[in-house]
Design brief:
The chain is an alpha/beta fold. The protein has one domain: SGNH hydrolase (Rossmann fold). The protein has eight helices and nine strands. A five-stranded parallel sheet has the order 2-1-3-6-9, with helices on both faces. A two-stranded antiparallel sheet has the order 4-5. A two-stranded antiparallel sheet has the order 7-8. The protein is globular, with a radius of gyration of 21 Å.
């Protein structure tokens, strides 16, 4: 009996050790959070999040694209899409967050997805799309919420400015450095998280390539926001370029060398 009990005890210890080892050696996960410019599977469309995983070492990290088309920072929160990500986060994970394209929509009509402009503490009480009361906050409030929840799980957040649209003036690509790109940077600085200026990196590339080529190769014929497969790749390359320059963010260590 003593021998059987000892064997059972040893088996329990061994299983516990295996479980602990599995937890400590589990690969981190990189979650991508954003709108259709990050995740898009429509005909002719593609988001940078659909291809950026190709630049990471799959033996070291998992890349999970949770971005959803048509969402703003507000609706990603109110539809519990963010909660799904936050519930899965574990210590050592990473989150890339890019919003802004849909946050400029109407707050209390049409698609009910607009957030209040800016990074302050303003709020607005409305009757939501479902007829229920809703408190709408600023763009910055939602970003702060995402950061706080990720930090609670000891995960690392990188905020990104939105990818540039195919909009030009006098040979230059229109920037988002006076609105959502600016506000993303401000929140990143105040919350002491990394900021990746995706808007600026890709805009400079577009300007070198030229407006006509950008229009025909990197965007679809349907609008000036959603990218083609080639456009998704150039944005993904911009993300990687920006990550390599973030010296205090260990996510760059998971990138493939080539």
């Amino acid at each position: 009996m003593k021998f059987v009990f000892t064997c059972k005890l040893l088996i329990v210890f061994a299983l516990c050790a295996l479980s602990l080892n599995a937890q400590t050696t589990a690969k981190p996960t990189l979650y991508l959070v954003g709108d259709s410019t990050v995740n898009n599977s429509g005909e002719g469309f593609q988001g940078w999040g659909n291809v950026v995983g190709e630049f990471f070492d799959p033996a070291k990290i998992n890349v999970v694209n949770r971005a959803r088309g048509g969402r703003s920072s507000r609706t990603f929160y109110t539809e519990n899409l963010w909660k799904q990500v936050a519930d899965e986060l574990k210590s050592g994970d990473f989150v890339l967050i890019q919003f802004g394209h849909n946050d400029g929509g109407a707050i209390d009509k049409e698609k009910f997805r607009g957030s209040i402009r800016g990074v302050g503490d303003e709020r607005q009480e409305i009757t939501g799309q479902n007829g229920q009361p809703e408190t709408v906050y600023t763009f910055g409030w939602y970003l702060r919420k995402f950061i706080a929840d990720a930090r609670a799980k000891n995960a690392t957040v990188v905020l990104l400015s939105p990818v540039p649209r195919n909009q030009w003036k006098d040979g230059s690509v229109k920037r988002e450095n006076e609105s959502y790109g600016k506000w993303s940077r401000e929140i990143a600085e105040k919350q002491k998280v990394a900021f990746l200026d995706l808007n600026e990196i890709t805009a400079k590339k577009y300007e070198k390539i030229g407006a006509e080529t950008v229009k025909t190769q990197y965007f679809t014929t349907k609008d000036n926001t959603h990218t083609s497969a080639a456009g998704a790749k150039i944005n993904a390359e911009s993300v990687v370029e920006g990550l390599r320059k973030l010296k205090n963010v260990s996510l760059r260590n998971y990138l493939l060398k080539k």
